[in-house]
Amino acid sequence: MRYLPKSPSERREMLDAIGVATVDELFQTIPEKFRLRGPLNLPGPLSEPEIIDYFKARAAENSSGYTSFLGAGIYSHLRSVVTDALIQRGEFLTSYTPYQAEISQGTLEAIFEFQTLICQLTGQEVANASMYDGSTALTEAVLMAERLTSRHAILIARTVHPEYRQVLQTYARHLGITIREIGFSSTGQIDRAALAQESFADVAAVVVQSPNFFGVTEEISQLAEVAHAGGALLVDGITEAVSLGIVKPPAEADIVAMECQSFGVAPSYGGPHVGVIATRDKFVRQLPGRLAGQAFDAEGRRGFVLTLATREQHIRREKATSNICTNEALFALAATIHMTLLGKQGLRELAEQNLAKARFARAELEKIPGVRRAFSGPTFNEFVLEFPRSVKMINAALLRDKIIGPLAIGTAYPDQTKRGLVCVTETMPRAEIERLASCIKHILETPI
Amino acid sequence: MSESLKTEQDSALEADKIKKARRHVSQNEGLIFEKSAPGKRGIEFPPLDVPAVDAARELGKENIRAEVEGFPEVSEIEVVRHFTRLSTWNYAIDLGMYPLGSCTMKYNPRVNEFVARLDGLASEHPYQPIELSQGCLRILSDLQKCLLEITGMEAVTLEPVAGAQGELTGLLMIRACLEARGNPRKIVLIPDSAHGTNPASVVIAGYEVRNIKSNARGQIDTDNLREFVTDDVAALMLTNPSTLGVYEERIAEIANILHERGALLYMDGANMNALAGITRPGDLGVDVMHLNLHKTFSTPHGGGGPGAGPVVAKKFLEPYLPVPVVIEKEPGKFTLDLNRPKSIGRVRAYCGNFGVLLRALAYTLAYGPGIRQATEDAVVNANYLRKKLEDVFDLPYNLPSLHEVVFSDARQKKYGVNTMDIAKRLIDYGFHPYTTAFPLIVPGALMIEPTESESREECDLFVEAMRAIADEAEKNPELVKTAPHSTRVGRLDEVSAARKPVLRWKP
Fold it and tell me: In A312-328, which ranges are continuous DSSP H helix?
């Protein structure tokens, strides 16, 4: 087997050195009756070309050749060859968590840069080394708010990604946290009137997402005032990090939970992506996850270490801030490299291109008779349209044109079956946007 | 460090005492922010093919930001050099043995990286129509079948994205099952040798942790266990082999004790690299367990993640699996089942860490039933190291080792040298340290897991290094206590770093 570096005689010699006659003797502590007698029923073994063939065959069973207008938390953005080449360096790819600082300075310095970039982007003071993804980051942000306030209720906007809310429900269920959902107004933003009517007595946090699931930006500074007036924190979830190239950063939020997939990470059917939590300095001891900090050696040389580990499970066990251990370091590195490549100008231009393309698409689609914007609030690169027919029917027809159309939001919002979420990023050519519009127009002109 | 120590270190290197490594120039490199200058950039975009828009008008003046303060401005070559230079400061599996006990740092096959990046896999969106996702779903389904066969279990979810999340998922399934039986119960038992994630996960599942002491042999004391297992106990979380690398001999009896009182057995599968192809947890009475695909199934650690922590369980726990569940509706037709009223819910958005799951399948396919050989080689390597080192290092639990061996620093302590010092000195010898100070039941633990990926030559070099360090500990303890001597930075002052944390760059 090509991955195993021992010859048969080396195996023999090593067994001799150990002092056993057969390898089976090394497994003597496992009772005989529980030991497998025959080989496992597994496919393989496969050579390298056979493995490649298997996966190429699977890739061909997916959506190659289709143009997709899906977003909803996972975005198709330009990814640089440089990023992918660098994260495949074995020293990054095949190293462990940097607990041994002296031989992990590369990973540690990169994490320190990631934390810095996330602070700059979000307007927050401190960020961790990454979380699993946006959904679990948002959940951990809520648990953090609960610890910080010692309150046990959460007000969460229904405009937060439906699957993020489901993850929060799963985690919160046995922790004595009650979750109350707040609806949305005609702007597509959290219903401020409904929020104002809530009692804030035991509320730990108001939780919103901006841009939200409908692509609409929320008014973070005003929401922060409302939350703070009630003695609660404001938690802001961000699924589209590129928006921060142009949208005002949520500096007034107390905790920001962000998905960074948009920075150089492939959609990859939903993961691995990279979440992160950013917050205020004063809350750092309740922040979950790893943190890299600056340190010096005896000779005064600057280096970086994992720090404030007393928050973490390997030290605190059942009293830890979270059970998180593994994070998404390699993709935090990808995001770091990608953000560095973009720089100030590139990020701005990227955000402006997204805004322009989405505006163009929205205008083209709104020209179709019967199609109109569903919400009036400001949007970045995603927007909800209302169609005269069910989105599912339109999408089924679009597949014939090799187009994966708007996301039918009726699945998560049962009263919205005629509404669809369209995402248009810088990677979408104008011609494809025009083709989408003409195909939908044609479909709607065809009698059912 | 004193000059004499430096000289000694240099002469040791000159004398070729250290065979695996020698010093090599590495480049200095500051933070990327320190290289920034206005007007530089590393990415250019194709020109915009639609009319530009006025952001202030579109979003409202009050909703837009100025440029991102402090964001770096550097060119492509500077980015490439910056991160390449940083990379050379890391140790990695691709450079040599990484004997971190409990972490299973094995070779990460390169073909897995290649296939994960294929267009048609890396490019796919989980909300695309099911009929255009059959390739992704079949990959998931094939991996599910492999994991069920390897573990001897009957139900599976690939949704959890880390071992700790797998633990939580398994515990929530246990809770849901017991609730359905009428009483979720209150307590989860955890041996004192367990990973720290176990108790932390228990708390999120709404249970209380009760620690149980291992017996003098490092095993669960079954008589003692009987007393602990009351009607309030929901489950026991057992790591098998234990974190001592020792098989839990009475696991079947332990399962019986729990089952008789209506409690369940959770197995932490972190150490599955000792069992794959040899024995199946499902046959041992385990009800539910998680696997760490970034350990046993070779997906790269990437400096801390991503991982994946699938959960496998017995049939009676199937209704409680998190959503979505990948099912084969009819032969060759796959779908995501969301309509599962008894499910614990969703533990992560979308379909888990698909890219990690895919790599794990590529690994499994490469071995097929031959995965047993990998397990055997891992166990041979651990026992070989044990045999070659047990005369110089203290072995606190003298039970047969499987995939890892745990020594203590008891003998070196006499000279003032502890496990951390030995670990740091190992760096000078060209190795990554083993796991220090874990498991907690071994004071001053040296936890060594070579995995199957090491050749005899690499094992011999490690043995030589460890023996040389044991010798140094006796004859020149200062040399060991002040190690490492060959790295870019010496031991960093972690206490000051934690007291006044600097967690971001500022101009």
Answer: 313-316
Asked whether residue B47 is assigned to any structural domain, the reply reads yes
Q: What are phi and psi for residue B293, nearest 5 degrees?
A: -65, -25
- Distance, in Å, from the CA atom of A365 to the CA atom of A362, rounded to the nearest integer, reads 5
Spatial CA neighbour of B87 closest among A109, A118, A343, A326: A109
Q: How far apart are CA A18 and CA A11, in angstroms?
A: 11
Burial class (CB in 10 A: 0-12, 13-18, 19+), B22: exposed
A103, A165, A238: best mutation site toward chain B, by most B Cβ within 10 Å? Answer: A103
Domain ranges of chain A: 67-78+344-445, 81-338
A98·B303 Cβ contact <8 A: yes
Question: Is the CB of residue B380 less than 8 Å from the CB of residue A11?
Answer: yes
Q: What is the pTM of this model?
A: 0.97
Token pair recorded at residue A341 = 């490549």
- Dist CA A143 CA A322 (whole Å): 9
Nearest to B294 among A100, A326, A331 (CB): A326
Distance from CA of B3 to the nearest CA of A (A): 13
Cβ B305–A271 below 8 Å, yes or no? no
User: From A74, which residue of chain B is nearest by alpha-carbon distance?
Assistant: B125
Distance from the A438 Cα atom to the nearest Cα atom in chain B, whole angstroms: 17
In this structure, whether the domain defined by A81-338 belongs to CATH 3.40.50.300 is answered with: no
Indicate whether B152 belongs to any domain.
Answer: yes
Confidence check on the interface: ipTM exceeds 0.85, yes or no: yes
The answer to whether B359 and B292 are in contact (CB under 8 A) is no
Tell me the average confidence (pLDDT) per consecutive run of 10 residues in chain A, 448 residues long.
98 98 97 96 98 98 98 97 98 96 98 98 98 98 97 98 98 95 98 97 98 98 98 98 98 98 98 98 96 97 94 84 91 98 97 98 98 98 97 97 98 95 98 98 93
C-alpha to C-alpha distance for A158 and A18, rounded to whole angstroms? 63
**End-to-end CA, chain B:** 32
Selected residues 442-501 of chain B with any CB under 8 Å from a CB in chain A: 452-456, 458-459, 484, 487-494, 496-498, 501
The span from the CA of B233 to the CA of B214, in Å, is: 18
Q: Is there a single domain that holds both residue B339 and residue B374?
A: no
Q: For B152, name the nearest residue in chain A, comparing CA atoms only.
A: A40
Q: Which residue segment(s) compose the domain that B34 sits in?
A: 27-87
| In CATH, A67-78+344-445 is 3.40.1410.10 | no
Question: In whole angstroms, what is the distance from residue A409 CA to residue A386 CA?
Answer: 11
Asked, for residue B11, whether it belongs to a domain, the answer is no
Residue B51 makes CB contacts below 8 A (sequence gap 6+) with A356, A360
Residue B336 falls inside a structural domain: yes
CA–CA separation, B41 and A397 (whole Å): 43
∠ CA B70-B71-B75 to the nearest 5 degrees? 130
For residue A11, count other CB atoms closer than 10 A to its CB.
Answer: 17
Q: Does A49 touch chain B (CB under 8 A)?
A: no
Cβ proximity of B409 and B422 under 8 Å: yes
